[in-house]
Specification:
Elements lengths: L1 H22 L2 E9 L3 E8 L4 E7 L3 E11 L2 E11 L7 E6 L8 H24 L1
Antiparallel strand pairs: 1-2, 2-3, 4-5, 5-6
Family: Belongs to the PIGH family.
Protein name: PIGH acetylglucosaminyltransferase
Organism: Cephalopterus ornatus
């Protein structure tokens, strides 16, 4: 009887570990910004599974670095602000990026500057045409 309980506990633990690796543990996050198309966010899980989200550039209002206070610590994270279709000056949604990897502020600033360059090129291209 004890071996059955022990075997069941080991089996349930292994199933839990597999579920954690497949659905929860993110190994790598990437961001691809193409000024004429949009922004692609990809998360690679420890199991090898990938999750990709694409945001059309017409929906993007801006990319910002936001800050939050968590457990007596300030955390910085990159966000995409989506434009409200009904109110061009408003924001309909805030999409946080790099939630699992939590890069340092200096890394976020580099990514932010690159994103802003691409967004500025898009704005100047649309104004000139």
């Amino acid at each position: 009887q004890n071996t059955v309980v022990l075997s069941a506990a080991i089996f349930i633990s292994l199933i839990g570990l597999i579920i954690y690796l497949h659905f929860v543990k993110i190994d790598q996050e990437s961001l691809l910004v193409i000024g004429s198309l949009g922004i692609q966010v990809t998360s690679s899980y420890a199991s090898g599974k990938e999750s990709t989200t694409f945001i059309e550039m017409g929906q993007v209002k801006d990319v910002v670095i936001n800050e939050a206070i968590h457990m007596q610590k300030v955390i910085y994270y990159l966000c995409i602000l989506l434009q409200d279709p009904e109110d061009p000056q408003g924001v309909s949604e805030v999409v946080p990026l790099f939630q699992s990897s939590k890069p340092r502020l200096d890394c976020l600033i580099e990514v932010y500057k690159s994103c802003q360059e691409i967004l500025e090129q898009r704005k100047t291209a649309s104004q000139s045409s």
